[in-house]
Fold this sequence. Notes:
Helix content is about 35%, strand content about 35%. It contains three helices and five strands. The chain has helices at about 15-25, 30-35, 40-60; strands at about 1-10, 70-80, 80-85, 95-100, 100-110. Helix 2 (about 30-35) packs antiparallel against helix 3.
Amino acid sequence: MQAKAVTRYVRISPTKVRPVMDLVRGKPVDRALAILRYLPHKAAREIARTIESARANATNNYDMAPDDLVVKYIFADEGPAFKRIMPRARGRADRIRKRTTHITVIVDDGGEM
């Protein structure tokens, strides 16, 4: 059985989120949260929130045991980018893209499908 949680429009680039995700992919939920608790990255807090939400969805909606859950899939998709302009010399302008991320976590209890 699987449970899913999605956090959308997180104001951080997906390229900064993905290396943090690689640290917890395939780990038990309790261990993944312990790893994320001591990381200095902003992405670690957002990923931890999403994993806790997936754990809550698993226990409340599907009656899974929270101790048996494993982070089976975790990935970051690119969301819409806020477009801003920075003035440059001689009347020119550069585009600034403030990127957003959609974080998806799927936890599994290892039981029957």
